[in-house]
Amino acid sequence: MKIIHLKLQNFRQFVGTHFVKFSTDTERNVTVVLGDNGTGKTTLAQAFRWCLYGKTEFADESLVNKDALATSKRGQGLDVSVELEIIHRGTTYVIERALMCTVEKQGLLGRDVVKDFSITFKDDLGKSRPIPELELEAKIQELLPASMSRYFLFDGERIHSLSKQIQVGRKSKEFAEAVRGLLGLDPLVNALQHLDGSKNTTSVRKNFDKQYDASHNSRIEELALEIRHHEEELDKVGQEVSEQREVISELENEIRKEELNLGRFEEAARLQRQRKETMQRKDGYSKELSLN
Questions:
Q1: Domain spanning 2-144, CATH class
Q2: What is the pLDDT of residue 205?
Q3: In which region does residue 171 sit, left (phi positive, over 0), alpha (psi from -120 to 50) or beta (all else)?
Q4: Is the pLDDT of residue 113 over 70?
Q5: CA-based nearest residue to 56, from 48, 66, 65
Q6: Domain spans of the chain?
Q7: In terms of CB atoms within 10 Å, which of 53, 70, 107, 133 comes out highest?
Q8: The predicted structure's pLDDT at residue 27
Q9: What stretches of the chain show up as alpha helix (H) in DSSP?
Q10: Distance (Å, rounded) from C-alpha 237 to C-alpha 219?
């Protein structure tokens, strides 16, 4: 997954619209966000989480920027939104989550809040197309499952603690599961567990063992004898085929020898004709000399 940009509107500390563009260069592919404490670095990380899953880890659950709320008039609409553009497996997605609020009075929101969540993607022709509403959560789980997000979306202050927990084994299993899921290996692992009967009591192997009993022994023996019989027949046929191939190889060698001999005979016949013609010319010359 490549993150292209993050856009925030009236989200926590960020009043108005703010746009963060991330590097997608193949070599210089790290984007560093610097700032003093309290300026919104953690809020940026939480903005990803809220956009994707609709949740944050803030003690104060209010997401509306207080300055924007304080300057809004009664009855005025106030929107809070986070937009995330990514490229995942060659496809560009735009994920947006928003709250459409109404100011009841200055500094106070009304109870009626409209929530909106959407995902669009660009097709092969470059046109934006929406993901159906019923498929939104499944698409998020495909892009970055919530169970893995804590290993990818966290503030810098927590990285040392997280690394230490993984090293001592407290989080190593969860981390391995997160990486496995991100790489799309869960279906393969589940299939192996389903086939293996050593630990899984509902596996294919266990079910077969439960269904198998002594009454099947005679039929299995019959089938085993048939298999051995057919294998013996196959061995015989294979041996015959091998012998026939040897005979064919010997015949091919004989043919090549005969062709060589035939070539020699043809050369000898050509030389014999040439000798005869030479002798005839010699006799002709001899006759001419005797007449003279």
A1: alpha beta
A2: 56
A3: alpha
A4: yes
A5: 48
A6: 2-144, 229-292
A7: 53
A8: 87
A9: 41-53, 66-70, 136-143, 146-149, 159-167, 172-182, 186-195, 204-211, 217-291
A10: 27
